[in-house]
Amino acid sequence: TFESPNGVRRKIPVTPVLSTGPKKSNQHHDTLHYRHGTLVFPSDIVVQPSAKAIDSSSLLTSVLNSPSQSPSEAVMSSAASSPPIIQFSHPAAIFNQFVVSLVDHSVLKLCQDGDAGALSRYLSLHHDKVSARNLNATDQTGKSGLLHAAMTGNVAIARLLIKLPGLEVNLADNEGNTALHLASQAGHADVVSLLTLCPNLSIDIRNNAGLTALMKAALQGRVRCTRLLLLAGASPVLRDFGRGLCSVEWARLTGRTKCAEIID
């Protein structure tokens, strides 16, 4: 276990971790990329890996005893035929003294990729203790990992996320759409069903146009989603900001007669 500069504690495996570093980064630091993140060394610290794997004690010795050689020269001095491989048998020994920052895999990125297995392994590694900032991180459109799961109908990822403390289930994107809006509009009834079980869900939240999830489901003709939202207590009388229509009127306007019958 080690503590990053922002005070967050992380647990890492003590089994050997292989890297193809050091490598120069844009911030003029030496960076070691390993399987759970990025280990960054200050530029005045020298790492002299050999072509063969070395353990953490050898690395510490080479760093402390070679202050004059630049990191890039240290890397280039190794055998050109094979890239240097650095093996950290006990990474915590290095983290405690030299770590500047560790960049974890992003929950958002895993959700964008739709890889439920990778997300499950990530959460297991962190014992389901993911910071709210990481859990609710958004892309340039304002969509978090949960919104991506709802938009694509990824039930496995949605199920993993909604059980985590700190998840903002009502988080909206740049257009004001929440995960419930996106799932209802796309007809992902299983995701809608999961979301309606969340105790903090605001089922009648409006987007920037004043549309609720029920309106979205009705105007798209999503019959199952319409039924689920009504059963969960969605209001059929609210009206949007533009046309001033309620959900049943939206259903009739767009020719969704089945949804109109269900709402009536």
UniProtKB/TrEMBL annotation:
Keywords: ANK repeat, Repeat. Signal peptide: none annotated. InterPro entries: Ankyrin_rpt, Ankyrin_rpt-contain_sf. It comes from the Eukaryota. SMART domains: ANK. Gene3D superfamilies: Ankyrin repeat-containing domain. ANK repeats lie at residues 175-195, 209-241. Residues 1-29 are annotated as: Disordered. This is MAGUK p55 subfamily member. It comes from Daphnia magna. The lineage of its organism: Eukaryota, Metazoa, Ecdysozoa, Arthropoda, Crustacea.
